[in-house]
Write a structure and sequence with these properties.
Length: 156
């Protein structure tokens, strides 16, 4: 019994180490891919300020879209978000990044990076998840609305 417990403990530690290594790799890939996002969200994820009181994009810190259900975040990243005309504080639009993040590892990396940077803590998005999201949203050909993001954010 003692050896079984030790074997299970060792297996658990090896799995945790593999998960940590995958997260570290995705964070590195994501940090590089985030260069595209910086144009609007800024290097610190706070949103590029346009004086005196507007931003190109909202802050990613604490973002419910970024840290919530990964499917909703994937939809936003892949297809972009239609500008809300009522929000005059944000001047830019969320451009679709499907072409720039055509590789599943890049998509998973940038999602994992944002979900675990800027004070955020959320689950890792794997390349397998990214592939699933890409397939799930393949028929959407235009930017999405907040309502579509909310729907995608509901666990099925």
């Amino acid at each position: 019994m003692k050896y079984l417990a030790l074997s299970l403990l060792a297996a658990s530690a090896a799995a945790a180490s593999a998960d940590d290594a995958q997260k570290a790799k995705l964070m590195e890939v994501g940090k590089t891919a985030f260069a595209t996002c910086m144009a609007c969200h800024g290097p610190d994820g706070a949103g590029m300020a346009i004086p005196p009181d507007k931003k190109m994009a909202p802050s990613l810190a604490g973002s419910k879209i970024a840290t919530g259900e990964p499917a909703a975040f994937a939809l936003a990243v892949l297809k972009g978000i239609v500008k809300d005309p009522a929000n005059t504080q944000i001047l830019g639009i969320m451009a679709p990044l499907e072409a720039q993040l055509a590789d599943d590892e890049k998509l998973a990396g940038v999602m994992t990076y944002v979900r675990n940077s800027f004070g955020n803590t959320a689950s890792v998005v794997t390349p397998e998840d990214a592939k699933k999201f890409r397939e799930q949203f393949k028929d959407i050909k235009a930017q999405v609305t907040r309502a579509q993001l909310e729907e995608a954010g509901k666990k099925k």
